[in-house]
Amino acid sequence: MPSTKGNDMTTTIFTVTGMTCGHCEGSVRSEVSKLDGVSGIDVSAASGRLVVTSESPLDDSAVLAAVDEAGYSAARV
User: Fold this and answer.
1) Strands 49-54, 73-76: parallel, antiparallel or unpaired by DSSP?
2) Rounded alpha-carbon distances, angstroms, from residue 10 to 27, 30, 53, 59, 65
3) What is the pLDDT of residue 8?
4) Whether the Cβ atoms of residue 75 and residue 13 lie closer than 8 Å to each other
5) Is the dihedral of CA 45, 37, 10, 39 positive or negative?
6) CB 10 within 8 Å of CB 54
7) Domain that holds residue 12
8) Rounded mean pLDDT of the chain?
9) Rounded Cα gap, residues 58 and 41, in angstroms
10) What pLDDT shows up at residue 4?
11) Which of 5, 8, 38, 66 could be 31's S-S partner, Cβ–Cβ 3.0 to 4.6 Å?
12) pLDDT-based confidence at 5, cuts 50/70/90?
């Protein structure tokens, strides 16, 4: 699914593998929140889904690198 834009915000969805608990979610949230322009993060270990809301389209490679820095693998949906 491509990024969606509404109310001047962009939402991008990723799948994350390797997360098993709330601590995992927090690690991903912490790293992704450091990216410029990120205004919202919804991450679920149960579904393996990461939804990033930003002020403008983000560079996918930056999000993937942030997830990698947290210790997990991701792919854009």
Assistant:
1) unpaired
2) 22, 19, 6, 12, 19
3) 80
4) no
5) positive
6) yes
7) 4-76
8) 93
9) 13
10) 54
11) 66
12) low
Question: How far, in Å, CA of 7 to CA of 34, rounded?
Answer: 22
Residue 42: φ, ψ to 5°: -125, 115
What is the domain count for the chain? 1
Rg (alpha carbons) of the chain, rounded to whole number: 11
CATH number of the domain residue 57 falls in? 3.30.70.100
- Specify the pLDDT at position 33: 97
Angle between helices 22-32 and 60-70 (to 10 degrees): 140
Lowest mean pLDDT among 4-8, 22-26, 30-34, 42-46: 4-8
